[in-house]
Amino acid sequence: MPPPRLLSGTLFALAAGLMWGLVFIGPLLLPGYPAALQSFGRYVAFGLIALPLAWADRRLLSQFTRADWVEAGKLGLVGNVVYYLFLASAIQRAGGPLPTMIIGTLPVVIAVASNLRDHARDGRLPWLRMGPSLALIAAGIGCVNQVELQHLRADPNADFVRYAIGALLAVGAVACWTWYPMRNADWLRAHPDRSPRAWATAQGVATLPLALVGYAAFWAWNTASGQAFEMPFGPQPERFLALMFAIGLLASWLGTLCWNEASQRLPTTLVGQLIVFETLSALAYAYLLRQQWPEAATLAGIVLLVAGVAWALRVRPEPPAAAAAHHA
């Protein structure tokens, strides 16, 4: 591979990771805002940003059938709104580091899920060769979890149940974003003649009405239940709106654009490993907000996670025919 393409591709992947990491600090910067409002607000902002993109792609979007739009809506609901609802809730309950590490397992979780579901189509990953990577990832999450639990024990006002619920919500976010890329890939493979860019825009447009309905429903519930939360934009409207549009523009649109640029320049085996930039960026932002350096055990956990993901992504699947013969 020519060095300029390698360098530019890596820089695009780094830029994507730096922007995707922003979604992990939104809940920390708006601690008094319900996670549901942050999720709906982010995707209302992203949907509004997607509208001019849809106008530019209107000829391609006109080719989509009603079934295509229904599928785009499902993907937008699970992969955008519900995923970020789980993630924001997890971070507000468990802090930044542990949910970030759990989300950082996504490349491997997706590989394992695909191995179970799609081995007949895409080939089978040898389970024995995946074992060491899974062990490294588990050890890395364990290190970070141990440090966070020590902080909780030192805090007389700590809520261990709240922390545990945060960890479970992060697992829910992983489940959403394991389902999403597999389902999205199914559609793209079934429609090789369609534009991936227009399909991404369609998902943004399809998410907008869902986010608007969710925002309105939260507003109605907030009013009917007599909650003290100030609607429509909360007690810090300027900060809320600025963060929602910044995350919608930088993470949802520009981050994905940079990732697509990286994917065009780099081999899939390499670009898959570079998604770890998102995890590292999110952890860096979390510790910057805490104004402290990670402890030694946390750094060890991060190294173990990165090593586990890198190991897993080097394992190549057996071709379908060879896998079938091996298991016959």
Would you write up a description of this structure?
This protein has 328 residues and is mostly helical. It is built from 16 helices and no strands. Helix 3 crosses helix 12 (237-265).
Which helices and strands, and how do they pair?
Elements lengths: L2 H18 L5 H4 L5 H22 L1 H4 L4 H29 L2 H7 L2 H12 L1 H4 L4 H28 L5 H31 L5 H29 L12 H29 L2 H6 L2 H15 L5 H19 L5 H8 L1
Helix pairs in contact: 1-12, 1-14, 3-5, 3-11, 3-12, 5-6, 5-10, 5-11, 6-9, 6-10, 6-14, 7-10, 9-15
Q: What structural keywords apply?
A:
globular, 328 residues, mainly alpha, 0% strand
- Taking pLDDT < 50 over at least 5 consecutive residues as the criterion, the unreliable ranges are none
Mean residue pLDDT: 85
Beginning-to-end CA distance, first to last residue: 38 Å
How many domain units? Answer: 1
Structure classification: mainly alpha
Question: Which word captures the global form?
Answer: globular
Topology pattern, helix = H, strand = E:
HHHHHHHHHHHHHHHH
In DSSP terms, counting alpha (H) and pi (I) runs of 4 or more, how many helices? 16
Largest sheet: none
> What's the total count of β strands?
0
How much of the sequence lies in strands comes to: under 5%
Query: Which radius of gyration do the C-alpha atoms yield?
Result: 20 Å
Portion of residues in helices?
Answer: over 70%
